[in-house]
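Amino Acid Chain and Its Fold in Token Form
===========================================
Scope: a single protein chain, as residues and as a discrete description of its fold.
Amino acid sequence: labelled as such and written in the usual single-letter residue code.
Position: the record begins directly beneath this header, with no further notes in between.
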Amino acid sequence: MRWQGRKGSSNIEDRRGGKAARAGGGAGLGILLIVLVGWLFGVDASFLLNQDNTVATSTGNVGALDAGEEEAAAQFVSVVLADTETVWSDIFDEQVGRPYEEPILVLFSGVTQSPCGGASGATGPFYCPVDQKAYLDTAFFAQMRRQFGVKGDFAAAYVVAHEIAHHVQNQLGILGQAHRLRSQMGQAESNQISVRIELQADCYSGVWARAAQSLLGTLEPGDLEEALYAAKAIGDDAIQRQSGRVPRPHTFTHGTSEQRMRWFSTGYQTGDVRACDTFGANSL
């Protein structure tokens, strides 16, 4: 991905280096609040809990970054965020017919607070619809490489684009609609709605990737393969197998590896947000 030397976004809230409000001993409660608020707004955050409904723990130093790596990651995220602003402003103008409202992306190290609760390296990146901000621990990219074997800058860009896609869903009213559906359903059915939310975000990420190439010329050979490999590595079935469990489809909240790859490809091939209607699809 061509990003070095390019202008970053002004919509970065940098809480690294002790600037963040610390979750401290209340981090477990904070994570539970993220799950609750995420459910209310249609953003699934149940991946923060394991199958026994206990708070997920981090993987030690698996995501540790040295100072140089962390600063490079911060600069990279800023450039990718700027790209999403350019792309989604254009798409909203052309396909939606109204202005795009840019979100804030919060960079933090270790732990921080959000209106959705405390965030830490254990939570992974997430979008909080309460304050319309995306939250990202810069160490997550190292964790992707070391724990999931996901490499490449465009794979990391896909992660940022996916969280910004949740902001797009929020602006389009999709998260609110999803909440109304989930409030009328049991857990298994609610999980199915969550899968549709996440696969749509993957599809929107593909729409972004196509437009980023068309408008900005950012993609390089192999970039799409990096994004697809990332989508494959973080499918529900792949993650459950990696943890030594037999995949249990009724517990899936983000979609299988095959589904995540296919919906990203759909977005990239069409470049049309209307092609990302996972809620109207008979089959995912």
In short: Residues 67-96 form the longest helix (30 residues). Residues 39 and 163 are 16 Å apart (CA to CA). The two ends are 29 Å apart (CA to CA). The chain has one domain: 12-276.
